[in-house]
Every structure is written in C-alpha cells, then in structure tokens.
Amino acid sequence: MDDANLTIADRIQARLETLTRAERQLAHAILENYPASGLGPIATLAKDADVSTPTVARMVQKLGFKGYPEFQADLREELKAKVSGPIAKHDTWAEGAPEGHMLNRFTEAVIQNIRHSLAQIDTNDFDAACAQLADTSSRLHIVGGRITHTLAEYLFLHMQMIRPEVIHIQSTSNAWPHYLLDVKEGDTFAIFDVRRYESNTLKLAEIAQARGARIILFTDQWRSPIHSLADICFSSRIVVPSAWDSAATTLLLVETVIAAVQDLSWADTKDRMQTLEDMFDQTKLFRKFT
Amino acid sequence: MDDANLTIADRIQARLETLTRAERQLAHAILENYPASGLGPIATLAKDADVSTPTVARMVQKLGFKGYPEFQADLREELKAKVSGPIAKHDTWAEGAPEGHMLNRFTEAVIQNIRHSLAQIDTNDFDAACAQLADTSSRLHIVGGRITHTLAEYLFLHMQMIRPEVIHIQSTSNAWPHYLLDVKEGDTFAIFDVRRYESNTLKLAEIAQARGARIILFTDQWRSPIHSLADICFSSRIVVPSAWDSAATTLLLVETVIAAVQDLSWADTKDRMQTLEDMFDQTKLFRKFT
DNA sequence: AGAGAACTGAAAGAATAGTTTCATTATTCT
DNA sequence: AGAATAATGAAACTATTCTTTCAGTTCTCT
C-alpha cells in the first residue's frame, strides 16, 4: 500500500472533507472509540453511528479496502503494532502538534483548572444554588461585568428558556440602577465578577443585598470582594498561558448549573420549550435540518 | 459478574495451570498479541496458535463466555476502556459528589468533547487562522447567532484589545446588512454557527464571501452548511447530558486562538494595552486591588 | 500392556455477518 | 422552481464464521 504507514484514523481524517453526511457521522463514531468500535461486527458499528450497514460497507470500500473484514484486519495490525510499541501516553491534545504548541499548552492548563475548580465545589452548595435558580416564586437577576457579561448573557439566554422572570443587568451599563428599583425581598442575583473586580458590580451587589436579595456569585480563585455578601460562591481557576484569563472553567460550571436547573424544572420547562419551538417555526429563523 | 473488574488476560493467566496442552498453546497465542489476536476470526486465532477451531470455542466457554463472539465483545469493551485513558479514570471530578451527580457527568462529557475536538484540529489550519486574525492589513468581522453571539462577543472583546479594525455583527439583528456595505476584498470573517444553524447567518456568509471575504468558521461536529464557504473550519463536539448543547469546547478553542494571536501581535498589542490601562485608570472602572 | 477417560480436530450444520440491489429521499445544478 | 444526480437504508441474498457432533488419538491408571 502507498499509505501503509498512515493509520486508518489518519486516512479517515484526511478524507473527512470528501465524505457525505452519513459517512461523516460514521467516521466520527469510528474515531470516537478508536479502534475498538471498528473491531466489532458491521451491524454494531452501524447502529452506534446511527447509519445503515450498507453505508459502512460502502465507506470502507471508499477508504480503499476490499471489504469490511479487510478493514478490520488492518485495524488489528495497527493495534498489534501500537501495543507492542511504546506505551501510548496522552500527553498531547492536538495530535500532530508539537508538545509546546499553544493548543496543547492551553488545553492542558484548562483541564488542570477544571480539575482543581471542580474538586473544591461543595455539592450541597451546588444543589442549593440550582434549587434557588429554579425557584420561580422570586425573580432572577443576572449580572456580568466588562468581559463576564458574555457569560452572564449565556446564563440569561438559557434561564430565560427554562423559567419566567429572568432579567439581565450589565453592570457596566449606566442604566443598572434602574433595574434595582423593583428588586424585592427574596429575589435572586447571579453575579459574575472575576479579576479586575469592578467597582460598579460591587456597589450593585451591596444595594441588591441591602434590599433583601440573595446572591450567587461566580468568581475566580482569588474571589471577588462580593463573596462576603454572597450566599453561595463558586470560584474557578482562570490562569492560562495567555495575557488574559480563561472563562472556560466558569462556563463549564454555568452550563452544569443550567443542566441541573433544567432537570429540576423540566415539568414547567417542557411547555416553554414547545412554545419556543413553535415561534421559531413561525419566524423561519432556522434552516430546516434534521 | 464477580470477576468483572479482571481483564480477560488476568483470567487466562489465573487458569493457565488448569488448561490442557492445546489450550495452553492457545492461551499463549492470545497473550502474545493481546488483545489484537483475540479480535480476529476464530479460525485465524486457531491457526496462529496451531490448534483447531473447536479448541478455541471450547476454551472461551471454559473461561465463562457463552461463545466466541461474547468473548470478543468483552475484549472490545476492555480495549475501549483502556484507550479512553488515564484521564477518564479520574472518575469523579467534584470529590464528594456521587458519581452520577450532574457535576461529574457533565464535566466528564466536556472533557471528552475537548479531547475529541482537539484531536481533530489540523495544526496548520490553526496557525493559518491565527495568522489571518492577526493580520491588521484587512478588517476583521465577527459574527454570532442566537446563542453563539456570546462567544462572538467574547472573541470580539479580546480581539478589540489586540488589534484595530474589529467589528462585531449579530446576525440575529436586522441591521446586519448595513455592516456588509463596507466589506472589502480580503477582509476576514470569524463566524460562529452551531446546531440549529441559522438561515440569516448562512446568507450573511454567502454575501461576505461573494464580496471577497475569507471566512473562519467555528461550528459543531456536524458542521454548519457554511463550512463549504469557509477557508478554515473548526468543529467542536458539543453534546452533553443536558437539554442544550455545550459551548465550553468552542470557548476553549476561541481562547486558545486569542492567546496565539496575541503572541503573534505582541509588539503592536503592547502599546494598545498600556493605553487601555491608562483609560481604565481615568474612568475608575476597577477597584484598586493588588 | 490394556481399558477407560479425556483430549483433539475434521467435517457438517446452524447462525451470524457482509454485500448487493433497488426504491426512496435528499441535494445539486440548470 | 424543476429536472438530474447523488446519497441513503430496507430487504434480499451470499458468504463467512461459529458451533456441534463424532471418530480418531493420546494420556492415565491399574
């Protein structure tokens, strides 16, 4: 073979562009659990990828094999060579990129951040925060800063789908005092404040608390001064090999909160989602696409 | 099963003494190229071990499997678990939380998403994209959709600090055609489009390309239809145990791009940063804080 | 050494896996 | 918008793989 020293995974990668929809779906399934998935029967692989068996048969032929059995034989050869070789260690994330490449250094840092941040979370706090965010008997205000308003808005967009009475306040806007007029005892504030803590956000938090609001704070490892006002405080590590900080860990946390809150309120959310879908249909915002 | 956590190799080792001559011969052949040899057809394995196929069939039954296919299925499972590696072994992320807790399930999914997405990135593409984003000789337009405009804005906020001539367009706004008026040959578009691909965003991409712009696309594993218009396409896996998709992997990618671009343009960025700091001082936006 | 038991493999039979055809559906091009 | 083209999966078909039977062989024990 001319491409004998390329792994099958490489060959699939290389041709990924030229593949059709179902074939690409299949390609992903193969790479997902490579090489194990390709070593089972054709029907199992097809089912995993949610395509038909002929699609699998056709693709392996496209890849240059006479048939599925030959494809498997090659996979086994590859596995044999790999196992007898040096122990496969996953020290790079972007395969093919040098170890010192930004992709690998950055990803490694983020994974470490996630690990440390998650290890410090008190599950009870987490559950309590989610319960509070799911509680529709009071309003939910979401506040972000100069950079973090993007995270705030991300949370806002999802909470808005899940429940009513959600308000997004940008503390950097000079209109924020207006929003505080209607704050009632028992309202919830989800506040984002990370390094370069903003004076506006702190003032806002103080006023909100004075008016009887309960605060859930998303901050960094050094914790915004707001933490002393907060009921619940989540701190994420944000340091990466960059001139700026990483929001990835905080976003992970926010997404997890969204998923948990949505689990708690599924009964109510279901109808909202349906209504939303109907409205999307009417506005033709999205392409018809499976 | 009682011996569920033992590998098949262990089980064979343990029973090695009780096996007959032909079976022991077979056992050694299996262990010789473990697990590859066991994943082929029964006849191949028999031939390798120089025994008959019934011997193989009988031994796998002796080992407690219903038949050879079941034995293979177990081998594949073992391989799957092994390949997903030591990082996956970190079975809980939030210590103290039960394994099935949302925090652990969600984080696990995101880590897998990161792993798979990163493995697929072509380093050359990545470097090329960063070079293009750092090129100040043409303008940079950043476009996001209903949810992804938060990511777009995140990129925008940072690129704005790094270089001049950066514009944020929200494709969901009805003012987006206005932005296209001034697009020139050679301009760069960074476009975000993930599942529930938006028709507006596609149209915008088409027009931009027609006007000679080069497109860098951030999309999901199924790839927005825009990918056929894009110069460079980054696809992230976004599926998590939630009713919604995860933007965490895409954000990681965006942050890495930001870090790399900033490295490329540090000479110019330095001055911009200083000016920005001075302005911050004047507006007293931030608290004085070490 | 010889009878009995256990082991082994050839071959047939049963089951499962892989391939191909063809009608349907989606997509592209005019 | 409509015709042509490509892609896809259900189902029929073919090939291979696995299992079982059974007769020959080897080993063990008296």
Short description:
The structure is a homodimer of 290-residue chains. The first copy, chain A, is α/β, with parallel strands linked by helices and 290 residues long.
Structure description:
The structure is a homodimer of 290-residue chains. The first copy, chain A, is an alpha/beta fold and 290 residues long. Chain A has two domains: 8-84, Orthogonal Bundle (Arc Repressor Mutant, subunit A); 103-283, 3-Layer(aba) Sandwich (Rossmann fold), CATH 3.40.50. Helices cover 52% and strands 9% of the residues of chain A. The first copy, chain A, is built from twelve helices and five strands. Chain A has helices at residues 8-15, 21-32, 42-49, 53-62, 68-84, 102-119, 123-134, 149-162, 176-180, 199-210, 248-264, 266-283, and strands at 140-144, 166-170, 188-192, 214-220, 232-236. Chain A has a five-stranded parallel beta sheet with strand order 2-1-3-4-5, with helices on both faces. In chain A, strand 3, helix 10 and strand 4 (214-220) form a beta-alpha-beta unit. In chain A, helix 7 packs across helix 11. The first copy, chain A, is elongated, with a radius of gyration of 25 Å. At the A-B interface, helix 2, helix 5, helix 6, helix 8 and helix 10 of A face helix 5, helix 6, helix 7, helix 9 and helix 11 of B. The structure holds a DNA duplex (30 and 30 nucleotides).
